[in-house]
Amino acid sequence: MAKDPFDEILQFLKPDCRIDLKHLSLEHLLDITGTASGKEALLKNEEVVRTIIDLTDDCEIISKTALLILVNITSDAHGATELLKYRPHNKTNVVELFLGYVLDPKKSHADAACMILSNITRVENSVKVCLDTFIPHLEDLLKVLSNLNYNQCKSKLNYIAPLFSNLSCSARFRKWLTEPSMKQYPFIPLKKLIPFCNYVDSVIRRGGAVGTVRNLSFDTSYHEFLLSEDLDLLTYILPPIMGGEEYDDEEMEKLPVACQYYPTEKVRDNDEDIRRMIIETLNKLCAKKHGRETLRNNGVYYVLREYHKWEKNPAVLLACENVIDILIQKEDEVGAEDLSSVQVPEDMEEKFRKMDEDFLNSAP
Amino acid sequence: MSDKADDSKKPPMSEEERIALCQKLDEELDLFINSLERKRYTEGWPEDRWEEEMSKHPFFMKSVSPDGELSPLAEGLAQLKYDPEENTPLELATNYKEDGNFNFKHKNYRLAIMGYTEGIKVRSDDAEINASLYNNRAAANFHLENYRTALHDSERALSFNPEHTKARLRAAKSALAISKFDTCIEHCEKILQKQPKDKESLDLIDAAKKKQTLKERDQRKKYVLDTKKQVKKNAVVQAIIDRGITIDEREDGGDIDLSMLEPCIPGAETDMVRLDNGILKWPILFLYPEYQQTDFIRACPENVPIILQLEQIFPAPWDDKNTYSTKTINIYYEGTDSKPHLVNLKKNLGDILVEKYYVLKAGTPSFFCLERGSRMEKSYLEAYP
Question: Are A193 and A288 found together in one domain?
Fold first, then answer.
């Protein structure tokens, strides 16, 4: 069997090896993981991967590079799934190891550990596997996310938000998110998360929060909760799609109080994906009558009317039009109590899909 | 002599003799008492009014007599209670606290505050009594709706005892009452740290957040409306500058601002010149020296001939000779050259305002109207140098 070139480097990665050798070797490996083929090759050598995982606990300069290598490895689905198979000593799996780093206020480069967790959970099947490891630490993760100065080594830990977004594909996680916890105020974890939908300093954190809300909206059983007065969701998801436009007095009065009378300087969120996710959320919330009525009563139609004049991206415009079409009708015209349960005949479905495609392709 | 000797040799009494002797003594006593005069006991309080009498005694007084006078005994006792010589600071402070509590119970909040204040002045070392005094004074102030003071006193109480939940709750409520929403929320969250499910705190936080959102909205609304107003004002000023209308300025130089355009007529402040779809609309004044009359006309568009405004006025009610009409009058304005200038009635108001010698005073174009060829007109014109 041909000698695996990675085996050579192993000797320089031994724990008792000189730091500068370790560091150089790791930097070299980091470069290798910059390409897809490099990543694949590295993954094949289990010993090396195991060593890198162990080195994340080494001194700062070593652990930093080790963590970055793992970030690269987990950046695609294959690597993310592979890494989950490893078991560092004393831990059930790698997730527990990285969770430990995230929750350690003194860990430098905890951000990288956070990214790894986010990468791993992006693969939906992996969520099932590692959810049990996350469950006991969810409250702590939320506390850490909410405390902007938690990490003493300048890690912002913004990636906890997309981590939550990834986990929200699990029903158990959604249950935790939306049910009163007895441990701390405010009791409902989601309540602590949604203000971050407006967090200007990090598009990652913002995107994660919005993504979590969006995923929740796919489950119609949560709609009544999502639109409850206590949660005040619209106050947080409308601002990113609102600008400094003028509304009539009548229209203004309908908007949520916190969204009224924005100064002319107000700008919409500059991230297209976030805007798109918000429109998708609004769309989902229109599935049931209660949702449609709530959105109408809060002036969402007016917001979308102005938004439609501003948005340039064709896909988002289309999504926006879909919501407007629903909201603009009177309730008796809508014709279905729960739109998500309407069965679209296959041939019609194909026809609609083609119409959407044509619209998108025709845009200049 | 022989009797004495007999006494000493008497035998001791038997049991029966003793009993008989007791009974005899009892009977003799009863006889004696019954023979005494029956006199009533008048020294004590009358039976039917004993409670009333008792409440007047300084030892048992519950309240002071209406005129506030105390008997010397009562005064002496009172002074004893509040005498620094007779009490330790703690005792003194406690006495004042009791005094305050007494008044508080009877809803005399101002008197209660005085009592607590005296207790505070004692500056006892005991943290508990100080916390209590400040807390109680805060409560009294709260009842009097002195929310700022109530907040201050509550926070002073907390400085002596940070765990005083009642004081902290009152601090939160007082803060909310004076719209210090952040302070209210801070205090509530501290309470929730120890008692995570305290309903009052949770409700207060909700109320504070709602009020804060409303306050911020109102601030934004005001800003938007003020900016709009300012933009409108600036547009008017700019329109006037663009047309090159001369304005009478008392101050030297400087930009025209709207204060120079305020009409001098009381009640006309709302009729200041305005811009409507690019047309300036002016308030104007017609003066009739002959009859000492004036006409004030609102919102005359600049693109309308002045004759049309006059046609609305005539025939005028004060014109008993019926000599004033658009065909018979001349109208003049006083120019920058201090001379009267005749106005061509067919001209638009706006064109008149930009005539060479025209100057706008007090934001209100004014014109003198006189009958053409009349003596009045002659004397008016001669009045100018």
Answer: no
**Alpha-carbon gap: A261 to the closest alpha carbon of chain B (Å):** 5
A185 in B contact zone (CB under 8 Å): yes
Task: Decide: B316 and B292 in contact? Cβ < 8 Å.
Answer: no
Q: Is the Cβ of B199 closer than 8 Å to some Cβ of chain A?
A: no
* pLDDT of B252 strictly over 50: no
CA-based radius of gyration for chain A: 24
CA distance B235 to B223: 18
Q: Pairing mode, if any, of strands B274-276 and B279-288?
A: antiparallel
Q: Is the pLDDT of residue B83 over 60?
A: yes
Q: Which CATH architecture has domain B75-211?
A: Alpha Horseshoe (1.25)
CA–CA separation, A342 and A349 (whole Å): 12
Backbone angles phi, psi at B293, to 5 degrees: -115, 160
Distance CA B120, CA B137 (A): 10
Other CB atoms closer than 10 Å to residue B150's CB: what's the count?
25
Of the candidates B180, B168, B171, B188, the one whose C-alpha atom is nearest the C-alpha of residue A185 is B188
Whole domain around residue A56: which residue ranges?
1-73
Q: In whole numbers, what is the pLDDT of chain A averaged over residues? A: 91
pLDDT tens-digit readout, A224-253? 999 999 899 999 999 999 999 999 999 999
Are A121 and A210 part of one and the same domain?
A: yes
Task: Enter the tokens of residue B354.
Answer: 């930009």
Full DSSP string of B4-57: HHHHHTPPPPPHHHHHHHHHHHHHHHHHHHHHS------SS--GGGHHHHHHHS
Residue A363 forms part of a structural domain: no
CATH topology of domain B258-382: Ubiquitin-like (UB roll) (3.10.20)
If one counts the domains in chain A, the total is 3
Assess contact for A26 and A62: CB atoms under 8 A. yes
Supply the pLDDT for residue A1: 45
Q: Is residue A254 part of a domain?
A: yes
Which residues of chain A have a CB within 8 Å of the CB of B181?
Answer: none
Dig out the tokens for B284 from the structure.
């104007």
The amino acid present at A331, given as its one-letter code, is E
Under 8 Å CB-to-CB from B172, ≥6 apart: which residues?
B183, B184, B187, B188, B191, B201, B204
Mark whether A169 and A242 lie in a shared domain: no
Q: What is the ipTM of this complex?
A: 0.78
CA distances from B202 to A120, A231, B185, B189, B192 (A): 38, 14, 9, 8, 8
Q: How far apart are the C-alpha atoms of A92 and A83, rounded to whole Å? A: 13
Do the strands B279-288 and B366-371 form a parallel or antiparallel pair, or are they unpaired?
parallel
Q: Is the CB of A185 less than 8 angstroms away from the CB of B217?
A: no
Contacts of B227 in chain A (CB under 8 A): 263-264
Query: Residue A133 maps to which CATH number?
Result: 1.25.10.10
Q: Are A91 and A213 part of one and the same domain? A: yes
Residue of A nearest to B194 (CA): A184
> Which pLDDT score, from 0 to 100, does residue B223 have?
94
- Rounded Cα gap, residues A293 and A296, in angstroms: 5
Backbone phi, psi, residue A269, to 5°: -60, 130
